[in-house]
Amino acid sequence: MYAKYIKQEIADINGTGSTQAYYKMELRPMDYRRFVSQCAREGHMEESAILGVLSLVSEKLALCMAEGYSVKIEGIGTFNAKLGVRDDKLQDAFEEGETTRNASTIEVTGVAYRADNDLIFNTWDKCTLKKGGISRLRKSKYTLEQRVQRARDFLEKNKFMRVPDYVNLTGLSRSAATVELRKLADNPSSGIASRGERSQKYYVLKCKE
Q1: Is the pTM of this model over 0.85?
Q2: What is the DSSP letter of 125?
Q3: Are 200 and 85 in contact (CB under 8 A)?
């Protein structure tokens, strides 16, 4: 069976004056029961046996990650837990000295997964692609100046702003909003600064000198 690829338009990351393109799969959903059914049929096994094994793997994987292990499953990939602060807490500044934060304010926010090279190669070996659709960027109805002002107004009323907030304020796609906020934080005249790193990054008003 063919898989379709989509040409995706993304924001101008390199400052060339034109948008960029990358390619992604046009994904079709496959639910858990269907996946198990196909495994049972192709492996000549009972569905109940496969369900039991998958359930055990899921429970044991969660337990091992909870205990701080990075778990490698041959042919599938490596899994480990990701930590972050609770939503009502701002990211700490990294300074010497004791901190008032304790374990109750830190939580597991996700699972990091790195695919095994054999899985990547096996997927590509079985893959036959054909052209699908084209996905264009969402355009904002506001000018850049208006978007910046809306962000400042938001920060006047709120302690901080994250990328989803900027998406809602401006109508930009998430990728375009991320790039634009990064540029604004690097621009001294924008009045907006960034704090934190990666998934914990947020934006604040620059302190007036």
Answers
A1: no
A2: H
A3: yes
Report which secondary-structure segment, H or E, holds 174.
Answer: helix 174-186
Q: How far is CA 155 from CA 105, 192, 205, in A?
A: 24, 9, 6
Q: What is the pLDDT of residues 185-195, one digit of tens each?
A: 999 889 999 99
Amino acid identity for residue 104 in this structure:
S
- Say yes or no to pLDDT of 143 above 80: yes
Enter the tokens of residue 169.
């304020």
Q: Count other Cβ atoms within 10 Å, centred on residue 172.
A: 23
DSSP string, 6-56: EEEEE--SSSSSS-EEEEEE------HHHHHHHHHHHHT--HHHHHHHHHH
C-alpha–C-alpha distance, residues 113 and 71, integer Å: 10
Cα distance between residue 182 and residue 203, in whole Å: 9
Q: What angle do CA 24, 30, 32 make, to 5 degrees?
A: 135
Q: Decide: 69 and 59 in contact? Cβ < 8 Å.
A: no
